[in-house]
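Problem: given the chain below (94 residues), write out its structure.
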Amino acid sequence: MNRLDKAWKILRQGKVRITLNEEHIRQARVESEDNSKKEYGVRCVNDKDWDCDCEDYLYNYINAKGSYQCKHILAMVFKIAELKGVESQTRLKI
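Solution.
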């Protein structure tokens, strides 16, 4: 299963909880796909970029220089799109 499919599965299982700050989403807690007792933090770091504290993101971010998105970040983006009623590929203001 690829990263996008895993992110979609995480979303469908209800494992994404977002936090609003001044009407903007600034962070989310995403439950582990395999371990319900483990959560990862996804944060907005500069109004456009996101980071995650999972091992996958921490390892791959170094090589991708800010362009890497782990399944937790993708699941959070899918959740935002769902909440905002985005049903097609459009620009999503977070």
